[in-house]
Design brief:
Number of strands: 30
Strand content: 15-25%
Shape: globular
Distance between the termini: 44 Å
Structural class: alpha+beta
Largest sheet: 4 strands, parallel
Length: about 950
RNA sequence: GCAGGAGUCGCCAAGCUUGGUAAAGGCGCUGGACUCAGAAUCCAGUCUCAGAGGAGUUCGGGGGUUCAAAUCCCCCCUCCUGCACCA
C-alpha cells in the first residue's frame, strides 16, 4: 500500500481538472441550470480563514449540485476597488493598480490550491475598465431616469489632513492618521433614489428564501412608518416647514419646534442677530459629536432658542423655534414638532429650558397634571385641550386630524421610511469615476455613452491630503460635450458598493470590449440568473444585500433582464473564532504582543483561554496557506465543514484539524489495505451494512439539499466507522466494493482530491468530479431494518451497562431471553393507546377490556408504569416473538465476538429465573453469568 | 440608542422549527491491547450514585403553560454582530 501524500495528489488532480477544463460551463437550455455564488472578495493580499470557509462551503455545494446533473454556474472575481489600495499608495508609494493586481494573483493561487471548482474563464475585476465602463453606464441611465441627483450632505472631515474620512477612519471622533478632532463638513454629493423602490424592496423579501433574521434586519432598515406631514408656517416668511410625525393626535400639545442645528435655514435666521455667536458655538460642538451619541436617549440634550417662531396650523398659536443636537438633518424634514407632555425627549428638553408643557391626552383610567408629571405620558388615552377633538380616543384622532389638515391644505397622510437615499460620492482615487462634466455655461453635463469609460488617470499624486484625482490636470480639464468650451470633470468616484451591486449578472456574461450598448446579453442572463444560492458573511445582511436588490430592480426596469430579486437563497456563514488568552478580572483579551504571556500585564491575574474572533490585533489568526501546506487541502476543507454548521461560529482548534487529517488519511487504508476475510455466504451483517449504506445516502442527500453540510458529513463519518467494523469481521467482496464506491461519491464534494485519487486507484477510468450522485434504494430502508438496527444496538448497550455494574467479574455466558407471546399482544394494544393518552389509569382500563389480558393484570400494571415513565425509549414493536428470536439467533455471532463469551437464546417460558421475567418485546431479558 | 443573534458535559458542538430516552459526533482526559519504549492504531470508560439493564441531577438565572419543557410564553443577566437611524 502506498502512502497518503496530500501535496502530490492534490496537485495532480488540480492539474488534471484544469487540463480537461471540466468546470467551464456554457448556456444549455436543455439542462437545468443552477447558479451558486460566493461574495467576491476584496483582494487584500492574502486569503484568510473566513474566505476559506466561504469557498469550501460553496465548492462542496457546487460539486454536489454538479453531480446531481445540474448545469452549475460557479464563478469567481475580485471586488478590486477600495481604500486599502489607496492607503498603500499613500503610505508606501505603491501604485494602486499594480498593488491590486499583485494581490489578486496571490489570492488566486491560494484559492487554486484548495481545489475550488470555479469556471475561471468568467473572472471579473471591478477595476477593469471593461467592467467599470458599465458602472458609469448604469449611473448615466439612472441620471436620465431621474434616479440620480445632487444634494448637500455632510461627511467626516479632518481639517489637518484636508481630507474626508470614512467612518472607520474617524472612530472615537479622532482622525486615524493625525488624531485631531473629526468635524462634519457639508459637500455636494451624488445620490441614488433607492427610496423610490422602498416598498418593492420591502415586499420582495417575501419572495426569497433567506434567513428570517436577515429579512427582519432589512425590514427594520427600510423602516416603513405611516404618519402625517404637517405644515407649520414660519412667522414673517412665505414658506412652511413640513415636518413628519407619527403622532398628529398630539398636535394641540405642540409648545415649540426643534430644528437640527445643521438645517441650512437656521444659519440664515441667526445671521447678524444676538443668537449668532451662541449658535456657532453650539453648531461646532454638535458637529464634533458622534452621531450615535446624539440620538442616545440618555445623552445630554443641548439646545437653544434662535429667535424665530412657527405657527401651529390648527391653533394658529405661535410657537418658538429651538435647535438641538438630538434632531438630525437627514431624517424627515430635519425638524420636528415638540410635544413635551407626550414625548420623553421633548419633555426633558422642555424641563431643561423652561418651556411650557401642555397635556392633550389623558389616560383612560386616571388623570395626569403638568405639575406632577415626572416624565412624558406616551401611551394611549382621550384627547383634551384639543377643541373639537376633545373626548376622542387618540388612535382615532390620528386619522381625523390628518383629514382636517388635508382639507385645510396644511398637511396630509404619508409614508415615511428610515431608508435614506444612497450617497455614492467618495472623494477618493481608487474607484470608478462618476461620468459627469461641469460646464460654466451648460451646467452639469453627462459624458456621452460613446465616450465611456471615463478612465482613471495615471498622473496623480498620493499625498494623503485631499482627493488624489484633483491632482491630475489631464483628468480634470476637458471639454464640455455640449458646447465644446472648457469644462471640469467630476472628481468624486463611486462608492464601491456600486461594483458589487450587479457583478452577479456580469458573471453570466462577462463584460467584453465588443459589448457596446448593454453590459450583458439579456437572453444569457435570463438563462443563468438569478443566483440560486448566495453565500457570504452576515456583516453584509443589510447594506450590500439591499443595494444589490435595488440595482436588480433598476436593471429590470431598464429591460436588461427579467428578475425581481438577485439572490433566491441566502446562506450567511458564521465567523471563525479561536481560543485566546483572556483576563477575567480586566475583562480583556491579550493583545498580539502579550499573547505568549501567562499572566495579565495590568493586574497580574492568570490568563484563561476564551474564544474570540480571529483578528490581526489579537494576533490569533491562522493562515489557510499554512494549514493547507501542513495537512493538505482536503483535511483543511474537512475540518472547516465538520467543525460547525455553516451558519454558526466555528472554533478553530489544532486538535480538530488533526482529527480531520486522521480521518482523511484513514480513508487511504480503508480503501487500499486489502487485508480482509472474504466469504460468499450472506449473513445478517451484510443486510445491516446495506441498510446503513442506503440510509446514509438518503440522509446525506437530504442534508445536502438543505446545505446542512455538517450533518451530512456526520452521517458519513458514522457510516465509515460501521464499514470499518464490517471490514474487520468478514466481507462479501462485491458488497464491500460497492460500499466503497458509494462512499467515494458521497465524500467527493467535501474532499475532492483524495476521493478522486482513490476512485482511480479502485479501478475507475472516468473522473469522479463528473460522476453521478448516487440514488438510494428504498427497499433497504424499511421500518423493519430501522427497528432491527436499533434493537441490536440497544441490546448491546444494555449488556454493556450491566457488565459495567458487575465490575470486574469475568463473563462466561450471556443468556438473551425473548418475552412471552402475550407480551407482544399486550404491546400491540398498548403502544397505539399511548398516542391518545399518557394517563396510566385510562390505559389500564382500556387494556383490561381484553379478556385474555386480565390474568396478567398485576404484571401489566407494572410494565405499563415503567414504560410510561420512559415513553420515548420504546417504539412500536415490529417483530413478533418468533422473528425476534430468529433475529437474535442471527446476531448471536456478533454479540459473541463483541463480549468474547458464549451466547444463548431462550424463550421466557423455557427458563425459570426472575430476571427472565423482565423480558419485553424489543427488550430481551439478559442474564450474565 | 436602535436592530439582530447567542448562552447545552473539561473544550468545540448537535438537539429548539414540529414539546416525549438530553447530550449524537469530535477534541481532551482515564484505563486496557499492541510495542523494549514512544508515536500511531484499536477496545472500553468519561454528570452523580449503583454487585443487573436502575435511581437521581442537569441545557445562563427566575417565573409560567403542560401528564411531559433544552424546546412554547413572560421577566432578568452575560456575550457577540451591524448601523444612515427618534420623531
Amino acid at each position: 500500500m502506498s502512502e497518503y501524500n496530500p501535496r502530490e495528489i492534490e496537485k495532480k488532480w488540480q492539474d488534471r481538472w484544469k487540463k480537461e477544463n471540466i468546470f467551464k460551463v456554457e448556456m444549455d437550455t436543455k439542462k437545468e441550470k443552477y447558479y451558486i455564488l460566493e461574495m467576491y472578495p476584496y483582494p487584500s493580499g492574502k486569503l484568510h480563514m473566513g474566505h476559506l470557509r466561504n469557498y469550501t462551503i460553496g465548492d462542496s455545494f457546487t460539486r454536489f449540485k454538479r453531480m446531481n446533473g445540474c448545469n452549475v454556474l460557479y464563478p469567481m472575481g475580485y471586488d478590486s476597488f477600495g481604500m486599502p489600495a489607496e492607503n498603500a499608495a499613500i503610505d508606501e508609494g505603491a501604485n494602486p493598480e499594480e498593488w491590486t493586481d499583485r494581490n489578486i494573483s496571490i489570492m488566486k493561487s491560494q484559492q487554486k490550491s484548495i481545489g475550488l471548482s470555479y469556471d475561471w474563464s468568467r473572472e471579473i475585476y471591478s477595476h477593469d475598465p471593461n467592467y467599470y465602463h458599465w458602472d458609469q453606464w448604469f449611473f448615466l441611465k439612472m441620471l436620465e431616469k431621474g434616479l440620480a441627483y445632487r444634494q448637500e450632505s455632510y461627511v467626516n472631515w479632518c481639517d489637518k489632513c484636508v481630507t474626508v474620512l470614512a467612518n472607520e477612519q474617524a472612530q472615537g471622533g479622532k482622525c486615524w492618521r493625525c488624531n485631531s478632532d473629526v468635524e462634519q463638513k457639508f459637500l455636494t454629493q451624488w445620490f441614488l433614489k433607492i427610496r423610490d423602490y422602498a416598498d418593492e424592496l420591502l415586499d420582495g423579501l417575501d419572495t426569497v428564501e433567506w434567513p428570517e433574521k436577515v429579512k427582519i434586519m432589512q425590514r427594520n432598515w427600510i423602516g416603513r412608518s405611516e404618519g402625517s406631514i404637517i405644515r407649520f408656517p414660519i412667522v414673517g416668511e412665505d414658506r412652511t416647514i413640513d415636518i413628519f410625525t407619527t403622532r398628529p393626535d398630539t398636535l394641540y400639545g405642540v409648545t415649540f419646534m426643534i430644528f437640527a442645528p445643521e438645517h441650512p435655514w437656521v444659519r440664515d435666521w441667526v445671521k447678524g442677530t444676538e443668537y449668532e455667536n451662541e449658535f456657532e458655538e453650539l453648531y461646532n460642538e454638535v458637529m464634533k459629536e458622534d452621531k450615535f451619541k446624539r440620538t442616545d436617549l440618555e445623552a445630554e440634550k443641548k439646545g437653544m432658542f434662535i429667535g424665530k417662531y412657527c405657527i401651529n396650523p390648527m391653533t394658529k398659536e405661535e410657537v418658538p423655534v429651538y435647535i438641538s443636537n438630538f434632531v438630525i438633518y437627514e431624517y424627515g424634514a430635519g425638524a420636528v414638532m415638540a410635544v413635551p407632555a407626550h414625548d420623553q425627549r421633548d419633555f426633558e428638553f422642555a424641563k431643561k429650558y423652561n418651556i411650557p408643557i401642555k397635556i392633550v391626552i389623558q389616560p383612560f383610567d386616571y388623570e395626569i397634571s403638568v405639575d406632577k408629571m415626572t416624565r412624558a405620558y406616551e401611551a394611549d388615552g382621550v384627547l383634551v385641550n384639543s377643541e373639537e377633538f376633545n373626548g376622542m380616543a387618540n388612535r382615532n384622532a390620528i386619522n381625523v386630524i390628518t383629514e382636517k389638515l388635508d382639507k385645510m391644505r396644511m398637511g396630509n397622510a404619508t409614508v415615511n421610511y428610515k431608508l435614506r437615499d444612497w450617497g455614492i460620492s467618495r472623494q477618493r482615487y481608487w474607484g470608478c469615476p462618476i461620468p459627469v462634466i461641469y460646464c460654466n455655461d451648460c451646467g452639469t453635463v453627462s459624458v456621452p455613452y460613446e465616450d465611456l469609460p471615463v478612465l482613471l488617470p495615471k498622473d496623480v499624486k498620493f499625498t494623503g491630503k485631499g482627493n488624489p484625482l484633483e491632482t491630475s490636470e489631464s483628468f480634470i480639464n476637458t471639454k464640455c460635450p455640449k458646447c465644446g468650451k472648457p469644462g471640469k470633470r467630476e472628481t468624486d468616484t463611486m462608492d464601491t458598493f456600486i461594483d458589487s451591486s450587479w457583478y452577479f449578472f456580469a458573471f453570466c456574461d462577462p463584460p467584453r470590449p465588443e459589448f457596446e450598448v448593454f453590459p450583458y446579453r439579456k437572453e444569457v442572463v435570463n438563462y443563468w440568473g438569478n443566483v440560486d444560492q448566495y453565500i457570504g458573511g452576515i456583516e453584509h445582511a443589510v447594506m450590500h444585500l439591499i443595494y444589490a436588490r435595488f440595482f436588480t430592480k433598476v436593471a429590470r426596469d431598464l429591460d436588461l433582464h427579467k428578475f425581481d430579486e438577485p439572490f433566491q437563497r441566502l446562506l450567511t456563514q458564521g465567523m471563525i473564532n479561536k481560543a485566546h488568552p483572556y483576563c477575567p478580572k480586566c475583562d480583556a483579551f491579550a493583545m498580539r504582543a502579550e499573547m505568549n504571556d501567562e499572566t495579565c500585564k495590568r493586574c497580574g491575574t492568570k490568563y484563561v483561554l476564551k474564544s474570540v474572533k480571529m483578528s490581526k490585533s489579537y494576533g490569533n489568526t491562522v493562515s489557510p496557506e499554512e494549514v493547507v501546506g501542513k495537512y493538505g487541502a482536503d483535511a483543511a476543507r474537512f475540518f472547516i465543514l465538520f467543525g460547525a454548521s455553516p451558519e454558526k461560529g466555528l472554533e478553530w482548534s489544532d486538535q480538530g484539524v488533526s482529527f480531520a487529517f486522521k480521518f482523511v488519511s484513514g480513508l487511504w487504508s480503508l480503501f487500499l489495505d486489502s487485508d480482509m476475510k472474504k466469504r460468499s455466504e450472506r449473513n445478517v451483517n451484510d443486510e445491516l451494512i446495506e441498510y446503513q449504506l442506503h440510509k446514509t445516502i438518503q440522509l446525506v442527500t437530504e442534508n445536502m439539499n438543505k446545505i446542512a453540510i455538517r450533518d451530512a458529513i456526520n452521517e458519513i463519518i458514522q457510516f465509515v466507522s460501521n464499514l470499518r467494523v464490517y471490514k474487520i469481521n468478514s466481507v462479501i467482496e462485491e458488497l464491500f466494493k460497492s460500499c466503497q464506491e458509494y462512499l467515494l461519491l458521497l465524500l467527493h464534494p467535501f474532499i475532492p482530491h483524495i476521493t478522486e485519487e482513490l476512485w482511480e486507484k479502485t479501478g475507475h477510468e472516468n473522473l469522479l468530479s463528473l460522476a453521478k450522485w448516487p440514488d438510494y434504494n428504498k427497499d433497504f430502508i424499511t421500518e423493519e431494518n430501522d427497528y432491527k438496527w436499533k434493537l441490536m444496538n440497544n441490546t448491546i448497550d444494555d449488556i454493556k451497562s450491566i457488565v459495567q455494574v458487575l465490575k470486574e467479574k469475568e463473563i462466561n455466558t450471556i443468556k438473551l431471553i425473548i418475552a412471552d407471546e402475550w407480551k407482544y399482544d399486550l404491546f400491540s394494544i398498548f403502544m397505539p393507546l399511548t398516542e391518545k393518552t399518557k394517563n396510566q389509569g385510562e390505559i389500564m382500563k382500556e387494556i383490561m377490556k381484553n379478556d385474555n389480558m386480565k390474568k396478567y393484570g398485576k404484571e401489566i400494571s407494572k410494565i405499563i408504569g415503567n414504560v410510561l415513565k420512559n415513553i420515548g425509549g420504546y417504539s412500536k414493536t415490529l417483530l413478533d416473538a418468533k422473528s425476534e428470536k430468529q433475529f437474535f439467533e442471527d446476531i448471536k455471532a456478533n454479540v459473541k465476538q463483541k463480549f468474547e463469551c458464549e451466547v444463548e437464546i431462550f424463550l421466557e417460558k423455557e427458563i425459570d429465573e426472575s430476571k427472565a421475567k423482565q423480558a419485553l418485546p424489543g427488550k430481551p431479558g439478559i442474564i450474565i453469568q
